[in-house]
Write a structure and sequence with these properties.
The protein is α+β, with helices and mostly antiparallel strands and 1153 residues long. Helices cover 51% and strands 13% of the residues. It has 46 helices and 28 strands. Strands 10, 11, 14, 15, 16, 17, 18, 19 and 22 form a 9-stranded mixed sheet that branches. Strands 8-28-27-26-9-23-25-24 form an 8-stranded mixed sheet, with helices on both faces. Strands 1, 2, 3, 4, 5, 6 and 7 form a 7-stranded antiparallel sheet that branches. A hairpin with a 2-residue loop joins strand 10 and strand 11. The N and C termini lie far apart (104 Å). InterPro entries: ATPase_P-typ_cation-transptr_C, ATPase_P-typ_cation-transptr_N, ATPase_P-typ_cyto_dom_N, ATPase_P-typ_P_site, ATPase_P-typ_TM_dom_sf, ATPase_P-typ_transduc_dom_A_sf, ATPase_P-type_domA, HAD-like_sf. It comes from Prunus dulcis (Almond). Its main location: membrane.
């Protein structure tokens, strides 16, 4: 499998010209002995010079990579450190024997065959050059040590090659040899060539069933979890190899961690859905009848125009609508994939690294922590106090304890509710029970938001009005037709009692019905749902760029109505880049850490290194340690490693961890119960919020290592130290310790025993202060929200002094308003202990809640909602889930947030930044505002079209706008208009208004003012053209109808500009930023020119001259000054319908009096 290494070995054997008559294994042995001979023949002076060469200790030490798991390689380890490698090798049986005791893989590989060939054929004449050969020999040994056992086994026909995968590689750093030899190492890993070789005797399907059915007996028969890990070629301590070839091979053999979900709906689905519209079906029937009668009456050459035109118009409307919906379906599907792309930690190449859950493969070692969703089926490897919620799989709400003895089974889809663990992945994707269930579930992208529900109601109301008008038009036209009051294009009566040609009668009736149905099509604002969809889709796409991912559509619109935002502190208002800046031991600050007594330092090592969910990986190169965990854990671990000299890997084997209490936001501390292997002593360590840990202590360590009683005076001094650090915006973490007896380890509740961590009479080790500065721009974002009428409340687990300092720095608390801090700042326990009435009275004034629990946050949200606030809440922990669900808008954190919190939220803030929360507020208001703009625009068209057609039908017996023309107007206002107005970006003016609240009407008084004046102007102008147009312009009836149609369409184009702003008189401000709006207006005008000038037969129009075009444009352009004047007219704040209702009530009351 390693062709390069094999070629190297073969090339060397050919060079030595050896007769290979014995077994093939002697070839490698002979080669190894030949290399040793080269080394033994070197004069002692060369070896001496090599030993004295600067840095040779590092070269020799790192070139030999022993197998740390082999008990028989102790001598080889010493040899690797020996200054005389030649002697060391000969004493251990030469390179070949030593090579078998080393690791299987190394990560650096050279073309040693060519290298040895070159150096053995070159004669060095000076001693100065010969020590280079010593280095070359050392590298030759390294080459042999780098050869995996599989190469040796394969060259000797060794049959048990599968055992090679039970050990893992150790990195051998590359060494620069110098310019004389000019040897450039190649860093291609041997595993890149090997990839992954599955165990042919292993039944993976049986393992999948074993885990699904929780068959503990079968697990034990397979050698337990460790035996199964060996069968999967996984080293539990090092993980699998991380190179692409190895991972891809595992994915090829065992499957990928993806689910076969239902594909998104196709374009044909939306076409068929559009065809289900009743009005469209009626139009199609009318078009078919009109087509048939037209062909029969006028022949196939010209008779198809009217019916065919309706068909084409209907087709265009259906296709445009279907394409718009299909595009949004694809976008929502894309966002769904992004939202499900969760990152999780795995162990590969001995390092913890984050990968997507879709990249997890069978054999991976996955780290699980509180709040994680289990990404695949697997088995428990190691961990503490693990409990999972399997309600999504089993429906049972009780938490399930998972351990290595009784229940090692972990199922995908379950959520970690307590503890932490390492899991061996046994099945992924469709091989898991969760995968089978998810494959039958399709994503519902037709979720109806509250605003869409309100618009559906509005659409229904307007549609009913349209139906009434259409019915009246139908009745009036039929009466006029059958009474002989209608004329054809030649001026003859269309219906005469003496001429009852059935074909002509049916053709006339079909034309009348088509006109009436078309009025319904125009009257029903079908573009409203499309406008909402377009606005939401556009906003969601833009919000993704602004670091906010929308999980639920309703959150976009609801956020625009938010009146209160309850935000976390850490990571949201602050950077979440923690650093230990202060360290107090007893009552003294520590600057020089080497002054700490050794045994006190060891206690700190225990309290930090064993009471953590983080990890430390120190590269062999000695570079900066790679630390994983939460920001707080990472800061403390880095401090312990860099300042206190902690070595976690060296320390951990010396202790047994008996029990762990993981950190949670209610207790605000974590603890560990450990036993020291050397003397069997048992220790308890606690770490957490400083004042809570101090309250558990009765004594403390002084700087000289002495233990002193924590009396009232010293306790008060330490509390002042904590308050002083907190007032400087530092997060204070304290460490405490005690040693207990064997009998104190467990307690019994009558049925079973439980491990116990002592929580009193502890010894305070020390207190550290962690600095977490505010994020840039937070102060400005808070100011913007306050100017928008949105109150910001900070709810944090930090103490009250830290909370005050950060809130003041962020602008939540105002400098100079300290007198009101008593009402504005409160601790969670105090708020919790209020009566319900007291909470309702005080909740509006509270701006900062310190030392709060998730339950306190939930209480706050409930009280605010009861006071009719629209509440947005940020959260990142599993315990925040109830508050996130209770809030009107739940905002979870994308970086620090747990999967439980994200699943409970409506929007995920991808960068955990409060600036992004303020951005979401802007976009929420923009969504609401854009929809209101479109409603105003569309209702103007509806009112004008209905009134014009009704009056013309009653008075003249015909409608001025044909079915095709009305369908074209419908296309303009429903699709193109929605697209133009729905893509307006948020403006600063939006953040200077007060929130609309829950009960505000969708159509405001300002909207009624704007649309009624514009509609009245259009009605007046078009009725003048209807009844006086022919005489004013001295044109025929056909040209006059075209003037009416052209003027009506251009009025809508100009009114689109008016609709860009409902209050501002300058409707052109910022228009250059919305290129889509300009493009749509341009396309609309271009298509209108084509309709009028080139599609006479299709659109039933006549060509217009330049004067007539200019006249139409000038009439339509008058809507701009009218809009400018109308916006100067003040309107009452109280909704107009509320005023009408109150007036009616008052009138009835007066009538009774």
């Amino acid at each position: 499998m390693l062709s390069r290494s094999s070629d190297c070995s073969t090339s060397l054997l050919d060079e030595l010209d050896i007769n290979l008559r014995a077994k093939r294994r002697w070839r490698m042995a002979y080669l190894a002995l030949r290399v040793v001979r080269v080394m033994l023949e070197l004069p002692k002076e060369i070896i001496s010079r090599a030993s004295n060469y600067e840095g040779d200790d590092e070269i020799v030490h790192y070139s030999f990579v022993p197998n740390i798991e082999d008990d028989e390689d102790a001598g080889l380890k010493e040899m690797a450190k020996d200054k005389d490698p030649a002697t060391g090798l000969s004493e251990h049986g030469g390179v070949f024997t030593a090579g078998l005791a080393t690791s299987d893989y190394t990560k650096s590989h050279y073309d040693y065959g060519k290298f040895l060939h070159d150096i053995t054929t070159i004669t060095f004449t000076r001693a100065k050059k010969r020590w280079r050969m010593a280095f070359a020999a050392i590298y030759a040994v390294r080459a042999m040590l780098s050869l995996p056992k599989e190469i040796v086994a394969k060259r000797n026909n060794y049959k048990h090659d599968s055992e090679i995968f039970h050990s893992f590689s150790h990195t051998a750093p590359d060494i620069e040899l110098g310019t004389a030899l000019d040897l450039k190492p190649r860093t291609k890993s041997l595993t890149d060539a090997y990839g992954f070789v599955p165990n042919p005797d292993f039944d993976h399907a049986g393992l999948t069933t074993m885990v699904k059915e929780r068959d503990l007996g079968a697990v034990n028969e397979s050698g337990g979890v460790i035996g199964i890990a060996a069968s999967l070629r996984t080293n539990p301590e090092n993980g699998i190899y991380g190179n692409d070839l190895h991972v891809n091979k595992r994915r090829e053999v065992y499957g990928s961690n993806t689910y076969h979900k239902q594909p998104p709906k196709g374009l044909l689905y939306f076409v068929m859905d559009a065809l289900k519209d009743t009005t469209i079906l009626i139009l199609c029937v009318c078009a078919a009848l009109s087509l048939g009668f037209g062909i029969k009456e006028h022949g196939a050459k010209e008779g198809w125009y009217e019916g065919g035109s309706i068909f084409v118009a209907v087709f265009i409307v259906i296709v445009v609508s279907a394409l718009s919906n299909f595009r949004q379906e694809l976008q929502f599907d894309k966002l769904s994939k992004i939202s499900s792309n969760i990152k999780i930690e795995v162990l590969r190449d001995r390092q913890r690294q984050q990968v997507s859950i879709f990249d997890i493969v069978v054999g991976d070692v996955v780290f699980l922590k509180l709040g994680d969703q289990i990404p695949a089926d697997g088995l428990f490897l190691d961990g503490r106090s693990l409990q999972v919620d399997e309600s999504s799989m089993t429906g049972e709400s009780d938490h399930v304890e998972v351990d290595s003895a009784k229940n090692p089974f972990l199922l995908s889809g379950a959520k970690v509710v307590d503890g932490y663990a390492q899991m061996l992945v046994t099945s992924v994707g469709m091989n898991t029970a969760w995968g089978e269930m998810m494959s039958s579930i399709s994503q519902d992208t037709n979720e109806r938001t509250p605003l869409q529900a309100r618009l559906d109601k509005l659409t229904s109301t307007i549609g009913k009005v349209g139906l009434i008008v259409a019915f009246l038009v139908l009745v009036v036209l039929l009466i006029r037709y059958f009474t002989g009051n209608t004329k054809d294009e030649y001026g003859n009566k269309e219906y005469s009692g003496s001429n009852k040609n059935i074909d002509n009668v049916l053709n006339g009736v079909v034309r009348i019905v088509s006109a009436a149905v078309t009025i319904v099509v125009v009257a029903i604002p079908e573009g409203l749902p499309l406008a909402v969809t377009l606005t939401l889709a556009y906003s969601m796409k833009r919000m993704m760029k602004d670091q906010a991912m929308v999980r639920k559509l309703q959150a976009c619109e609801t956020m625009g109505s938010a009146t209160v935002i309850c935000t976390d502190k850490t990571g949201t208002l602050t950077k979440n880049e923690m650093e230990v800046t202060k360290f107090w031991l007893g009552q003294e600050p520590i600057e020089k850490h080497n002054s700490i007594k050794q045994y006190v330092s060891e206690l700190f090592h225990q309290g930090v290194g064993l009471n953590t969910t983080g990890s430390v990986y120190i590269p062999l190169s000695g570079s900066k340690p790679n630390i994983s965990g939460s920001p707080t854990e990472k800061a403390i671990l880095y401090w312990a490693v860099s300042d206190l000299g902690m070595d976690m890997e060296k320390m951990k084997p010396s202790y047994d961890i008996l029990h762990v209490e993981t950190f949670n936001s209610e207790k605000k501390r974590s603890g560990v119960l450990i036993k020291k292997k050397e003397d069997k002593s048992i220790h308890v360590h606690w770490k957490g919020a400083a004042e809570m840990i101090v309250a558990m202590c009765s004594s403390y360590y002084e700087t000289d290592g002495a233990i002193k009683s924590l009396d009232e005076e010293s306790r008060s001094n330490i509390e002042k130290i904590i308050q002083g650090m907190a007032a400087s915006s530092l997060r204070c973490i304290a460490f405490a310790h005690t040693q207990i007896l064997e009998e104190e380890v467990e307690y019994s509740n009558g049925e079973k025993t439980h491990p116990r961590l002592k929580e009193d009479e502890l010894i305070l080790l020390g207190v550290v202060g962690l600095k977490d500065p505010c994020r840039p721009g937070v102060l400005n974002a808070v100011k913007i929200c306050r100017s928008a009428g949105v109150q910001i409340k900070m709810i944090t687990g930090d103490n009250v002094f830290t909370a005050k300092a950060i809130a003041t720095e962020c602008g939540i608390l105002q400098i100079g308003d300290e007198a009101n801090y008593g009402e504005q700042v409160i601790e969670g326990v105090e708020f919790r202990n209020y009566t319900h009435q007291e909470r309702m009275e005080k909740v509006d004034n509270i701006l900062v809640m310190a030392r709060s629990s998730p339950f306190d946050k939930l209480l706050m949200v409930q009280c605010l909602k009861q006071k009719n606030h629209v509440v947005a809440v940020t959260g990142d922990g599993t315990n925040d889930a109830p508050a996130l669900k209770e809030a009107d808008i739940g905002l979870s954190m994308g970086i620090q947030g747990t999967e439980v919190a994200k699943e409970s939220s409506d929007i995920i803030i991808l960068d955990d930044n409060f600036n992004s929360v303020a951005t979401v507020l802007r976009w929420g208001r923009c969504v609401y505002n854009n929809i209101q703009k479109f409603i105003q625009f569309q209702l103007t068209v509806n009112v004008a079209a209905l009134v014009i057609n009704f009056i013309a039908a009653v008075s003249a017996g015909d409608v001025p706008l044909t079915a095709v023309q009305l369908l074209w107007v419908n296309l303009i206002m429903d699709t193109l208009g929605a697209l133009a107005l729905a893509t307006e970006r948020p403006t600063n003016e939006l953040m200077q208004k007060q929130p609309v609240g829950r009960t505000a009407p969708l159509i405001t008084n300002i909207m009624w003012r704007n649309l009624l004046f514009q509609a009245l102007y259009q009605i007046a102008v078009l009725l003048i053209l209807q009844f006086r147009g022919e005489s004013i312009f001295n044109v025929t009836g056909g040209v006059n109808d075209t003037l009416i149609f052209n003027t009506f369409v251009l009025c809508q184009v100009f009114n689109e500009f008016n609709s860009r702003s409902m209050e501002k008189q300058n409707v052109f401000k910022g228009i250059h930023r919305n290129r889509l709006f300009i493009g749509i207006v341009g396309v609309t005008i271009l298509l209108q020119v084509v309709m009028v000038e080139f599609l006479k037969k299709f659109a039933d129009t006549e060509k217009l001259n330049l004067f007539q075009w200019v006249t139409c444009i000038l009439i339509a352009a008058v809507s701009w000054p009218i809009g400018w004047i109308v916006k100067c007219i003040p309107v009452p704040e109280e909704p107009v319908f509320e005023i009408i209702r109150r007036s009616i009530v008052t009138f009835k009351r007066n009538m009774r009096a």
